[in-house]
Design goal:
The complex is a heterodimer.
Chain A lengths: L1 H41 L13 H26 L7 H18 L6 H27 L4 H19 L5 E2 L6 H9 L2 H21 L1 H11 L1 H6 L4 H27 L1 E2 L7 H11 L11 H20 L4 H25 L1
Antiparallel strand pairs in A: 1-2
Helix pairs in contact in A: 1-12, 1-13, 2-7, 2-10, 2-11, 2-12, 3-4, 3-5, 3-10, 4-5, 4-10, 6-10, 7-8, 8-10, 11-12
Chain B lengths: L1 H20 L10 E7 L5 H15 L4 E7 L4 H14 L3 E4 L4 H13 L4 E4 L10 E5 L1 H20 L4 E7 L5 H14 L5 E8 L4 H14 L5 E4 L2 H13 L7 E3 L10 H6 L6 E3 L4 H13 L8 E4 L2 E3 L4 H7 L3
Helix pairs in contact in B: 2-10, 3-4, 5-6, 7-8
Classes of the chains: A mainly alpha, B alpha/beta.
Chain lengths: ~350, ~325
């Protein structure tokens, strides 16, 4: 019986959901292509006549600009696949960026180990908060929305308390903090690490048992439970990873902005959720992919870029984005209903 | 479904293309493209700054001014400036959201050969052609001096209880407006800061904090708000408890228009406010010279002076500041 249910929970929907997942990724990819073509049509031209949008500098600008939300969205994908949500990631980003800046500006050492220690401290704290989210959600069985809402408020407070409400600037001189900012804010590091993390999460989700278990929980938690999956452990792990990834985004944020700020990352959780949803991941859990999230992130990034290159009013930008979010999900829903 | 999709696509294309087309409207005479990266349109001071900027450049007649709103977000402002660098404007004006985060990208604009005017908030390295700003520390000191004068006028000697409503902590303007006043008042032992509260620049918070303070402090002579809305909020709270005649209210910013501080001085709500220069007119003046006069080299910085607004000059200032 257990074996049967196990295969129903894990093996059964696998090939089916794979097909469906592929279809949804394809739809999102078409969306990205459409926006890309749009960018080619309406994008401004430089004085030499070339398309500004296609300049390599502009393309890497886009990738760099989406990287923080992109990294957060990777973790958010896992969380949403378990039918959960994580509202605390923006606050965790703020805490992480603050911790990095505090450690860097308060240590007298000159060795590069201080930088390593600062990053470890920030990532460690973020991981810990993520794990704590997971423990409360899994063991105490409180809804993820409530738990992470509380964490969003509490962690923001913690970050502000830690920094006495001030932003901690990282200078441009010769000190360690400046070295940290200059080396971690290069496009190579920012885009490169975003790409690496994407590949790791992709492999984790589509090629490992854990990935299948994550989907199984979101698809049907009861079935997964009867199938003997360690649900609590998996959930704790997933929220821990979401926290860790938000923490890493915070490290990138501090480096790129030359500043640790307790007010950073406001509403980043919502932008990440939007990217995940546009990428075809269902808020009901179980269905979705890292590839889709990457595409969703890029759709938002390319759209923002093309609107700004055309100097579109930022209020109009917000309204357009709202339309795109709803349209994307509606199209996917139509596709699902028909398929 | 396909039809609806098409509709959405058409609307999107038309909106973007429509907005994009504006760039080619004046192909004939020498047109200048001026890009202005504003840190946060939602603040009244910034909105007034935008309006004055538009008005000042419109006078020239051959300038296309584009204002981008960073919505108080450093990352967003960096991205916007990166977008402007790709568009190569003839002049870039930046009102930085914060010092350190914007310094590097403004350097990149300079490196790309774009003249940059840094507006109102200085950055950590001089990555600009010129800086146009005003002095918050001076405003704080003027406010402190005014408190001394008003208390002396009312009580015969400089003594009394002062309540201070502070803006968002950690913001430079807040720190300097605080420091300036305290620098002056610390030499007067009989003037006491009996209560200070953080009201984040907001009128609603000013009112809430003041209600609490009024419950706690039976004797208040002066309320010093780091901006006009907080001071006005405090007045509303005191008015609720019918204690508004026992104290005076002093604000900062001195914006024009019906909701601004100058009108409130005319109405007798505020005893005085300080005009904190919008800087946009000076920036436009210097910017136009940079564009049109080939040999013109701007000063390293232009620091504009604040101005006291009281019942004597409020009506005149109101006229000046309405645009």
């Amino acid at each position: 019986m257990t074996d049967l249910t196990a295969s129903a929970a894990i093996q059964g929907p696998r090939s089916q959901s794979k097909r469906r997942g592929l279809l949804r990724s394809l739809q999102s990819a078409i969306g990205l292509v459409v926006i890309f073509i749009l960018a080619l049509i309406v994008g401004p031209r430089s004085s030499s006549g070339g398309l500004v949008f296609l300049e390599s500098g502009n393309i890497t600008d886009i990738l760099r600009q989406v990287s923080e939300i992109g990294v957060i969205a990777l973790g958010m994908t896992l969380v949403i696949l378990t039918a959960g949500i994580d509202l605390s990631v923006g606050s965790i980003l703020a805490l992480s960026s603050s911790i990095v800046a505090v450690v860097l500006t308060h240590s007298d050492g000159t060795s590069l180990w201080v930088i390593a220690w600062a990053i470890t401290a920030a990532a460690g704290a973020s991981l810990l908060i993520g794990l704590l989210n997971g423990v409360v959600i899994a063991r105490w069985r409180i809804q993820p929305f409530i738990v992470t809402l509380a964490a969003m408020i509490g962690v923001r407070g913690l970050a502000r308390w830690l920094t006495s409400n001030t932003n901690i600037d990282i200078g441009f001189g010769q000190d360690l903090a400046a070295t940290f900012a200059q080396s971690l804010s290069t496009k190579l590091v920012v885009i490169g690490s975003y790409a690496c993390l994407s590949v790791i999460l992709y492999v984790l989700l589509s090629k490992t048992v854990l990935g299948r278990q994550v989907r199984a929980i979101g698809d049907n938690e009861k079935a997964a439970l009867y199938a003997g999956l360690p649900i609590s452990k998996i959930k704790i792990l997933v929220y821990g990873m979401a926290g860790l990834l938000a923490g890493y985004a915070g490290v990138l944020h501090a480096a790129q902005n030359h500043q640790g700020s307790p007010n950073a990352g406001m509403s980043y959780e919502l932008e990440a959720i939007a990217a995940v949803v546009i990428g075809g991941t269902s808020l009901a859990g179980g269905q979705g992919s890292i590839g889709g999230t990457l595409i969703g992130t890029l759709i938002m990034g390319v759209l923002t870029n093309i609107l700004r290159l055309n100097n579109i009013d930022s209020n109009l930008e917000m309204m357009l984005k709202a339309v795109i979010i709803v349209a994307a999900v509606w199209i996917q829903k139509r596709g699902r209903d028909q398929g | 479904m396909k039809l609806s999709l098409l509709k959405i696509a058409v609307v999107v294309v038309l909106t973007i293309a429509g907005a994009g087309c504006r760039s080619n409207e004046h192909a004939g005479a020498k047109q200048y493209f001026v890009a202005f990266s504003q840190c946060n349109n939602a603040e009244p001071y910034r909105a007034a700054q935008n309006a004055l900027m538009e008005k000042s450049f419109a006078v020239a007649g051959n300038v296309r001014l584009v204002i981008a709103d960073a919505q108080q977000d450093n990352s967003k402002q960096i991205a916007q400036i990166e977008g402007f660098i790709r568009q190569k404007p003839d002049l870039l004006i930046v009102a930085p959201n914060e010092r350190a985060p914007l310094t590097e990208v403004m350097g990149r604009a300079m490196a790309a050969g774009i003249p940059v005017i840094c507006l109102e908030r200085d950055i950590t390295q001089p990555n600009y052609s010129t800086f146009v700003g005003a002095d918050n520390l001076a405003i704080g000191k003027m406010a402190g001096q005014l408190i001394v004068e008003e208390l002396t006028k009312r009580k015969g000697n400089p003594a009394g209880n002062v309540v201070e409503l502070r803006g968002l902590l950690g913001v430079e303007a807040e720190m300097e407006r605080y420091q300036g006043a305290h620098d002056v008042l610390k030499t007067y032992p009989n003037i006491h800061f009996v209560h200070e509260a953080v009201a984040d620049w907001l009128q609603s918070n000013g009112r809430d904090r003041m209600l609490e303070i009024l419950r706690a402090e039976p004797k208040i002579d002066v309320v010093y708000g780091h901006n006009d809305p907080m001071a006005i909020g405090a007045y509303l709270a005191a008015h609720d408890l019918n204690r508004h005649n026992q104290m005076i209210f002093i604000g900062i910013d001195g914006l024009g228009g019906p909701a601004g501080g100058v009108k409130k001085v005319m109405d007798g709500v505020l005893t005085a406010t300080f005009y904190y220069p919008l800087c946009a007119d000076k920036a436009a003046e210097v910017g136009l010279r940079m564009l049109q006069e080939s040999g013109f080299k701007p000063d390293h910085q232009y620091i504009l002076q604040p101005k006291l607004i009281n019942t004597q000059n409020a009506a005149e200032m109101y006229k000046q500041l309405s645009f």
